[in-house]
Design goal:
single chain; 206 residues; alpha+beta; five-stranded antiparallel β-sheet; 5 strands; 52% helix; elongated
Length: 206
């Protein structure tokens, strides 16, 4: 709005300088870019990200399988902390497994495996079972991304891109205006320098 008002104010004003009109046009162009181009850029990025993440989610859901693991005994040495990528489907909010235990599970290939896992259940005892996710080879992995997660990440990516684009436009506008102001001051200094040579002299037109 300030840019539009500036254009109207300087359009037929006899005191208008070239830089005044230029600054108003720069502000108007920046405003249009922030209101149109930035959201459009965010929309494009969000759409592309959404498609990519949805494809990744579907691929993970095809390649990762839920299996049941049975606790053999506690593993207080935490030797298997590197296998903490598996997650307990029964844990609230999908929290990461925490307590190390030795467990046994059967992978999608039918091979029975034994290894160290971690669980958020601190009251777990030998013989208890919990669900984990494995790849096609039966190795513990993180749960697959859901379509909802993919959608949320895409929305955040689009919003972040739009905000970043608007910030870049505003930054560019400030740089251009600052250069214009410096040029204006330099012209004023030169004008005062020329006027100062004849300042106060009779017939100098001052």
């Amino acid at each position: 709005m300030r840019a539009v008002v500036g254009l109207r104010r300087w359009r037929h004003n006899p005191l208008r300088r070239a830089t005044d009109l230029a600054e108003a046009w720069v502000a108007l162009v920046a405003l249009l870019l922030m209101c149109v181009a930035a959201p459009a850029t965010g929309l494009v990025v969000g759409t592309l990200t959404h498609g990519s993440l949805q494809q990744s989610a579907r691929l993970q859901q095809e390649q990762r399988h839920p299996v049941t693991a049975r606790v053999l005994h506690h593993d207080d040495t935490r030797a298997g902390a590197r296998d903490a990528g598996a997650a307990d489907a029964g844990a609230p909010g999908g929290h990461r497994l925490r307590r190390p235990v030795q467990a046994q599970w059967e992978g999608p290939d039918g091979v029975r495996r034994t290894g160290s896992l971690t669980t958020a259940r601190h009251d777990i005892v030998p013989g208890d079972t919990f669900r984990i996710w494995t790849d096609d080879r039966g190795r513990p992995v993180a749960p697959p991304m859901t379509e909802r997660n993919a959608h949320d990440h895409a929305v955040l990516a689009g919003i972040g891109t739009a905000i970043l684009a608007a910030g870049l436009v505003e930054g560019a506008r400030r740089i251009v205006v600052r250069r214009m102001v410096r040029r204006r001051y330099a012209e004023l200094d030169r004008a005062w320098a020329r006027a100062g040579q004849d300042w106060g002299r009779a017939g100098a037109g001052s």
